[in-house]
Amino acid sequence: LLDPRNFVVFITGATSGFGAAAARRYVAAGGKVIATGRREDRLAGLQAELGADNCHVMTLDVRDRAAMEKAAADIPAPFAGINIVLANAGLALGLQPAAEADLDDWQTMIDTNISGLVYTVRLLLPGMIARGGGHVVTLGSVAGEFAYPGGSVYAASKAFVKHFALAIRSDLQGKNIRVTDIEPGLTETEFSLVRFKGDEGKAAAPYAGTMAMTAEDIAESIFWATSLPAHVNVNKIQLMATTQAIGPFDIYRD
Ligand code: NDP
Ligand code: 8X3
């Protein structure tokens, strides 16, 4: 197994959910993280918890290409040896049928889940290659594999993530860069609170009366994939809560 004390992990979306749990997991194992996101107060809290020697924070919006370019060029020396990029920032907005969905919501998902992802990966890959190797971890979803009503652009954006991850692997042959797409199902984080725009009742409903996965479960799978011996590439990991399964096709009848 690789020694996690050598890990330097750049994380998008570290203010909550999987990203925050992954930051804690890597630092607990002796690694260093660069934690990023838009909410400065959350980043400050995470840094206070993990220590400034282990956790560097950068306030940034992954949709802002210029800010992303500046951030990638601005990593302080102790954290400059990034060898894991966790491209995790993302969101779902709304669950309306396609003909009723808010086009601004669709745009935000495309800008965040697709544009933000490709900025992150494209800007950080050359440095990792120059330093001799590393690992890109993307956050896809079961939604990228199984369509569901109201999923539309969110599901399609996650299909993009999955295929982007597989495709860049082909370009990275011989560069010692691994690529893994993590594809979780039902996991209780702030995901639903964001999807339902702060409506706590609606946000709680997907998790009510069941045992969803936790952010720590997903962080563990990310940590596992990146800790395997360097000659092993996990292409993708699809995880569901034990209480979640795939339903039948939906047949309309008069
Ligand atoms: P959370 O809402 O808990 O966390 C999302 C993170 O993304 C936050 O840190 C948020 O930070 C960040 N983020 C959102 N928009 C931006 C932006 N424009 N710029 C920078 N950061 C941004 O959700 P999860 O932890 O559950 O989600 C993480 C990833 O996992 C997402 O890509 C999601 O689609 C995916 N996923 C989630 C599943 C689930 O059931 N929870 C299942 C499958 C995949 P901030 O708001 O501070 O910017
Ligand atoms: C999050 C899981 O099923 O809510 O990607 O789309 S789901």
UniProtKB/TrEMBL annotation:
Gene Ontology MF annotations: oxidoreductase activity, acting on the CH-OH group of donors, NAD or NADP as acceptor
Record bears the keyword Oxidoreductase: yes
Any Pfam family matching the protein: adh_short
SMART domains according to UniProt: PKS_KR
SUPFAM superfamilies to which the protein is assigned, alphabetical: NAD(P)-binding Rossmann-fold domains
Entry keywords, A to Z: Oxidoreductase
Signal peptide limits: none
Domain of life: Bacteria
InterPro entries registered for this protein in UniProt: KR_dom, NAD(P)-bd_dom_sf, Sc_DH/Rdtase_CS, SDR_fam
Family membership: Belongs to the short-chain dehydrogenases/reductases (SDR) family.
Protein name in the entry: SDR family NAD(P)-dependent oxidoreductase
